[in-house]
Amino acid sequence: TRWTSMSRGLGDVYKRQAQKAYRSGQVQQAEKLIHDGLAKAPNYDDLVKLRNDIEMITPLAKRLEGSEQLVGSEDVTAIRAMITECESVMNIRTQSEEVDRIKAKAATFAQKLKERLTEITTQATWEGDQALEQGDKRMALIAYRKAVNADPGNQKAELASAKLQKELTPLAKEHFQQALVHEELGQSELAEAEFERVLEIAIPGDTYYDRAIQKLKKYR
Q1: What are the CA-CA distances from residue 8 to residues 2, 11, 45, 54 (Å)?
Q2: Which of 141, 145, 207, 139 is nearest to 172 (CA)?
Q3: Rounded to whole angstroms, how far apart are CA atoms 220 and 215?
Q4: Which DSSP state fits 135?
Q5: Could you say which residues of the chain have pLDDT below 70?
Q6: What is the pLDDT of residue 66?
Q7: Of 86, 98, 173, 212, which alpha carbon lies 20 to 30 A from 15's?
Q8: CB of 109 within 8 A of CB of 89?
Q9: Helices marked H in the chain
């Protein structure tokens, strides 16, 4: 019993030292302390659990830290992917001091990223309004699309985007078809000009924009 008590005491000392090292970012030192502690207290469950927790959460912590720049990013796809990852960390069922710390960090980070999406959709909606006031429907559509991408629930941007798309797509189609006519007639310069006009009306990702890009490759 005395040896068990001493073993537990030694284990506690190593556990506290390993936790301190880990929390200060010294992962290798923490792992060494756990290894040394288990050499002196082989059956000390708390050290085993700490080792397992560190092995599980260290890669998660690195990914969170490596993605902190997303808080200032415009990359909606990357932001959404990281929010999903944060939520998966928050749903880890294991409970311990170290796991709870990473879960809390993930929750805080996810909230910041959600706030960033709100900033993006608000700014993009404003930019769309400004472009529309200036008569630049193409730039307005790009801005509204960005706003909807950041927040699919942004009804104002969604309605404005749909309205502009309905206006611009037939116009892009008209110029694209005219370009095809010029091609058939061997009027390459006129065809190129019409394909260029499509790019001035449609936006990347739209059918006629992408088709015009492909067509223009042989003119450049």
Answers
A1: 10, 5, 9, 20
A2: 207
A3: 10
A4: T
A5: 1-8
A6: 78
A7: 86
A8: no
A9: 2-23, 27-40, 45-66, 76-90, 97-133, 137-150, 155-184, 188-201, 207-216
